[in-house]
Amino acid sequence: MDDKWRFYREEKKGDSPIFKISRRIYIILGIIIAVTIGAFIGIIMGSMKEIPSISSLKEYKPNLSTRIYDMNNELITQIYVEQRTLVPLAKVPAILQKGIVASEDDRFYNHWGIDLHGIMRATLINILHRKVVEGGSTITQQLARNLFLTQQRTFSRKIKEALLAIKIEYYYTKKEILEMYLNQIYFGSGAYGVESASRVYFGKHVEELNLSECAMLIALPRAPNDYSPYKNPEKALNRRNAILNRLASRAVI
To answer: Is the dihedral of CA 38, 39, 42, 48 positive or negative?
Structure first.
């Protein structure tokens, strides 16, 4: 008797409107999830076909300045689209290297191009502030974007940026990536790369910079116009001091 009653209750439950509605909801959700995953995979596959090959990465040459000298080998002027002079990483002061990493991507040496921890942290901070105050892009992602992509904020561009970052990390060492980044990023006032920035702001080679000057350059990439010592000297000074305090708190200096 108990078995018959249990079968009757299960049969009635299966025929109930609530059960049928729940089943339909699960089916619909399953379809939506499957379509979403399929679309995401499709976007990734399409993006993989559009990103540059590794040969393009190896053959890439950034825009450099053309220097014009007089008969005494004195520099008269420079002609450029992007004012840039390449320097090897060995000539960049260690404090400038460490400071840029600490400011832009403090997990640079621990991730493989994409920092999931950083993305989650940035998302949480942005939600708490109700606006975008921190990005989740790594140094490698920024390099990929600056070299090959546009600044347009689209989902497709972010996918390409991530795929390129992974590819760059696979073929290049961290030192090579950091060197490319330091020679590529914009510091404001028409200066691209640490050597040009050092010349523009301090009139000296990058290897000649002192701690305070290095901190000023570290402050600029996040917002070159806002922190420019030419446009906002007081704001630039405050930002430089904040960088020095941050480096001290992290035992970088």
So the answer is: negative
